Structure formats: structure tokens, C-alpha cells
Amino acid sequence: MPPRDTNTDMSALAAAPAIEVWHLDLRASGPRRDAAATRLHSLLVRAARFEVFRRRGMLPQLSSGELDELAEEAAGDAAVSILRRLDDFRGESRFETWAYKFALLEAAVKMRRRAWRDREVALDTEAWEKLAAREDDAEHAELFACVRDGIRTALTPHQRRILVAVVLDGVPIDVLAERLDSNRNALYKTVHDARARLRAHVAAAGLAEVA
């Protein structure tokens, strides 16, 4: 069951006895696998609760009970991911450490998605134009104008929408992936490709490279 102390940290968990056969037990069947799954669930809930309560400022309106529910959901999703990817575990770190990271990621994703649940993602492709128009720094005006032109002419409409949403509007990748029925990796690639095109556009204009 989850620990009563919501401030449990990784150092405390690291002090727990190592059970390095978990990844083998989880491949077994019967009571051996059930016991390993129970231990894994306990670890994942502790990790997820740590991350959820660490980020509770994102959702101050939620009660401790509601945060616990999010942590339980994150732990469940993390368990599914771990069991699906057991072959990826190479023993380069403790199994607990490897598994712990899955729960942290799932908890962070759920907190971000919950925080954005009632917020509109407008995908306003004109937003970057407005930002550049407000730039009154003469030293950077030419660069901003070039970047604005690159966004308009060098990017595809899809790249433009995603880049503006992520970079300017600050929409988390996982939230955007959910809204667009896509996935994180696809959107990361879109952002990467868009930035590469912008760098090439700026370089062709003889200006300083953008990040």
C-alpha cells in the first residue's frame, strides 16, 4: 500500500533492500509472478505519489484523495509499460531504479494533462507574427523578421502549428499529442525538423543561427 509520508524521496527508496530478480520473477507464472507484481506495484505507487505531490502546485484545487487517484493511475500505466518493455532492461542499473523512472514519467504526464484538461489549445499559427511585431530591439529586429519569414515560408502548415504551440504557447508535448491523437515521438520529430528548417533559412540569409 502507498506510504503515508507524501514527501518520500528517491534517497529513501534507494535505501530499500534490492530485489534484483524482479525482472526474472515478472516473467514467471503463478505465485512467483503475483508476488513480484505486488512488489512492483508498491514501488510504482510510491514513486508516482512522490512525483504527483511534488507537482501539486500545478493543481491546487485537487484534494489529497484526488491526487492519490492520479498517482494510482500513473502507477498502473507505468506497470503496463514496464511489463511490455521487460526485454529493454539490461541490468545496467538496479531494476528498481529503472522501473521508478517509468512511474515518474507517467505521473508527470498525468499532472500536465490534468492541468491542461479545461484549457483550449488553439494552435494559433498567427501568434508568432504578433510576437515578432512586438519586438522593438533593433539589434534583433532583422533576425526576428527572418525567423518570422521562415516560419511563414520554410515550414509546412503542420510544422508551423506544432512549433508555435510548443515553443510560443508552451503547450506540453504530451498534452498536444493527446489533443491531436498523435504521440510524443512524432511531435518531437516535427519540432526538430521545423527548427532545422528555420536554422537553414536563417543561415541562408547570412544571419546568426537560431536554436
- The domain tally reads 2
> What kind of sheet is the major sheet?
none
State the end-to-end CA separation. Answer: 46 Å
The global form is elongated
Order of helix and strand elements from N to C terminus: HHHHHHHHHH
CATH topology descriptor of the largest domain: Rna Polymerase Sigma Factor, Chain: A
**What is the helical fraction, as a range of percent?**
55-70%
What structural category characterises the helix and strand content? mainly alpha
The proportion of residues in beta strands is under 5%
Low-confidence stretches: 1-19
Number of DSSP strand runs: 0
CATH class of the largest domain: Mainly Alpha
CATH architecture of the largest domain: Orthogonal Bundle
> Given the structure, what is the number of helices?
10
Mean pLDDT: 80
Report the radius of gyration as a whole number of Å: 22 Å
Task: Give an overview in words.
It is built from 10 helices and no strands. With 211 residues, it is mostly helical. The protein has 2 domains: 10-115, Rna Polymerase Sigma Factor, Chain: A; 127-204, Winged helix-like DNA-binding domain superfamily/Winged helix DNA-binding domain (Arc Repressor Mutant, subunit A, Orthogonal Bundle), CATH 1.10.10.10. Residues 1-19 have low confidence and may be disordered.
